[in-house]
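Following up on my earlier thread - several people asked me to post the actual chain instead of describing it. Fair enough. Here it is, all 323 residues.
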Amino acid sequence: MENLQLVLLFLGAIAIIAVLVHGFWSIRKQQPKGYKQSPMTDINRERRDADGFDNDGIGEVRVVKVAADDATNNDSVATVNDGVAKFSATSEPAIKENAFELTQTPQEKVTKTRVEPSLSTENPEFAEQAPVQESLFATEEMTSEQTVTAPVQQANEAQIQAHNQAYSENAQAVAAPQEAAPTQELGEPQDVLVLHVVAKDGEELHGAELLPCLLTLNFKYGDMNIFHRHEDNAGTGKVLFSMANMVKPGVFDPDNMEQFTTQGVVLFMTLPCYGDALMNFSIMLNSAHQIADDLGGEVLDGGRDTWLESTKQNYIQRIRALA
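Reply from S.P.:
Thanks for posting it. Predicted structure:
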């Protein structure tokens, strides 16, 4: 078995050597003759023609000195500098003359433009013709603009007049009931509806809690130093009902509400009143209940008795009797 392996290795080595030899031989065969022969041999040196070229057309190597090149470069630089100096010397006067001419030309133009608009007696015809031509152009433009804008202006005026008429009619329609409202006269009060909001036994109503509640219910401090409820929630318009202090003198001091205390407050509404009396009474009754709930009090009628449903019906009948 070992002999067989040795034989195979020997045969493989021979095969590899044969392949390498064949490869080198084929490469050597494909190369041209010029590469096979060295150009540096004495034979090639002897085979040069009269001009110094060999059989392949290659000449002898030439050595160029650096000093000669530097000298030629210096000479060329010197000639260029001389040329530049001559050009600058010859061109400077011309440039100065041109610059002088350029600086003078704008002054001549300025002087001409200054002379043209002057009103002199030498050319009166020209001075008179320019305004005439301008006036002609202006009149033509004005007439053309008038012819174009005339229909537009008429249409706009018609629309404006129609709009003004409609606005005046609407203003009159709105102003009619407003003018009629001030003419309404209530006359002397015939009845007064009274509600009391009192604190519980042994307690008091504090101004620090009362004032925010009144502002929430749209009360406004006003005449007679008491609070009023107006037609408008903003505190404008006629007074619907009012609220006073139950303790004499019956007034409030808004600046000292934090130190203010009382046994109760009185809400009252006179009949007849402005607006719907039933609606005004409903607002007053709801306000009284809200104050009682917020401050921990209770609602009483005009005689300081407990508020009942029968009492409410009695107040409604009094309102309807004067309606």
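The first strand starts at residue 191 and ends at 199. That should answer part of your original question.
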